[in-house]
Amino acid sequence: MTILxxxxxxxxxxxxxxxxxxxxxxxxxxxxxxxFIDPSEQIKQxxxxxxxxxxxxxxxxxxxxxxxxxxxxxxxxxxxENYVSPYNATITNKLIQxxxxxxxxxxxxxxxxxxxxxxxxxxxxxxxxxxxRMSGGSSGGSAVLVASGVVSMAIGSxxxxxxxKPASFNNIVGVKPTYGRISRYGIIPYASSLDHxxxxxxxxxxxxxILEVLAGRDDKDMTSLNSPVPEYSKNLxxxxxxxxxxxxxxxxxxxxxxxxxKQFNTxxxxxxxxGAIIVDIKLNEDLMHAMLxxxxxxxxxxxxxxxxxxxxxxxxxxxxxxxxxxxxxHSRTVxxxxxxxxxxxxxxxxxxxENQEFLFRKAQKVRRLIVEDITKALSLCDALIAPASNQxxxxxxxxxxxxxxxxxxxxxxxxxxxxxxxxxxxxxxFAYDEENLPVGINLTCIREAEQMMFNxxxxxxxxxxxxxxxxxxxS
Length: 475
Hints:
The chain has helices at about 5-10, 10-30, 40-45, 90-95, 140-145, 165-170, 205-215, 250-255, 260-275, 285-305, 325-335, 340-350, 355-380, 405-410, 415-420, 450-465; strands at about 35, 60-65, 100-105, 125, 130-135, 155-160, 175, 195-200, 245-250, 275-280, 385, 425-430, 440-445. The protein is α+β, with helices and mostly antiparallel strands. The strands form three sheets. An eight-stranded mixed beta sheet has the order 6-8-7-12-13-11-9-10, with helices on both faces. A three-stranded mixed beta sheet has the order 1-3-2, with helices on both faces. Strands 4-5 form a two-stranded antiparallel ribbon.
């Protein structure tokens, strides 16, 4: 059922009350919400919104990085546990103008820094397909709220794969559009050159519709695009005849799961049966192995600079101290978790004057080479395609991953390619692994080719029949 179907078959009160009731009922098991927002004033304001608005009366949630005036926006951190937003993010205004009813803020890895959603100050978020497993991150709270049927759409953000990986683990659609397609004004940053606003839905049509609402130029965000926003949902076509899918052999070679590989090959056969052309793409293997270290250096350096204002003095939680320096030290020590402190140490080290040329500038040069490589690959096809992961979601306490293996460096982290390049990328459902856990398929297209991406995704969806998936949480 699409968002438009939901709006046309239920009343505003019915769908909002159902969403809040279900979110609260699931909270003890999923731990997906950071806080709830009273919707009554927003519902009153619908009198000023056309009933033809695309999201009229639709309950949604915002990732806890998105400012909404008068509400807590903590970044799922301790240091901002008392921070009340004094203004709306641009996307908050756009969603309200489209008639959406924001019912709360969803959990995320602190400040979006992580891929597990296990670092939030409020604790881990759990996967509805198996409550002993992680949701994926950093936008895990939003992902599981869509996957479990609480809301039909939720906002996330994607700096490395923070929308697309949770989408894979939760059997839903996750979209990261072109860099600058959606304004980031009013959103707590992670790494400014890599951050994208993203979102989750349960089908491709809704994914296309939501971008129509969120996209557009914003003078408050100098990186936002001037390009017109097409009516993506009205221009959808599932026709795959002559469309070229570039299969990334580097990723397939790094995937060791025979079940996922078999189902991927089955999908390719289905695409070919619909007239698609499959093209073998081999990216530079050395660059693929260098991608994750390059990402860590750039992302953590930018994060360190972006969060230098979280000092316990100007806003947020403050710890006692004998002087200003002591207050700052105590506030940041208590306010930041172990993983965040580690990232800031890495970022600070890369930004030391004596290290900048050897680390930060070198990482930027490697990034440029990676972008050149992926751009060349996309000149040979309409989209790059690969499984979004080697497997379904890991157990919460799983520590067996070999982080130096190709399986980890490439198969589990290659989607950062789209953050380096700023190219549009999305994940949608396609298979289940040997433990019956969902695994998504990922598409990446050239800059501003969202319409092509949605069309190809619709063609894939017509093959897999995996749309509108909901995993009810058993109480």
